[in-house]
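User: My collaborator sent over this chain with a note saying "see what the structure looks like." That's all I know about it. Can you take a look?
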Amino acid sequence: MHLTLPTWLTLARIAMVPVFVAAFFLPVESANVICTALFAAAAITDWLDGWLARRLGQTSDFGAFLDPVADKLMVAAALVLLVEADPTPWIGVPAVVIIGREIAISALREWMAQIGSRATVAVSAVGKVKTALQMLALLLLLYHEPLWGLPTRTLGIVALVIAAVLTLWSMLVYLAAAWRVLNK
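Assistant: Without extra context I'll predict from the sequence alone. Here is the result:
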């Protein structure tokens, strides 16, 4: 199998996960800045590898499989670390909702692919908004220090809770689409 530039970027994102986790536990004051930068790099790389794959005509089944895996690994790692650092319901409950939804929708997509209806559970507009808000929330929570007078932790929690609500909404959209196919 020939690995394309977009696939290499996705693989690099996966390789960043243990680096990100290690950086989170660094005993230095700037650990939050390092983690935030690594997470931001992963988010940018996620957008870039998809854009490049489409632009260069280098989409592949392997890349389509690997890209969401890379996303879910980084997001799950960030959520678990944030819950460990700040075990409050405002972070813990959205973390469980987001990780649980990702597991459920991944299983649903796999099942729908097996019955030939994978397109039924393609990414929706709500899912894209949820993802953008989730990334913003995680960046704010990872940084967690006031920035230009803004309370990043508070803003991050609000964004994370809204992202969790959108997560449930997008899951219902996927389940409704799958239900229509299954009831034919």
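A starting point for your reply to your collaborator: Residues 1-73 form one domain.
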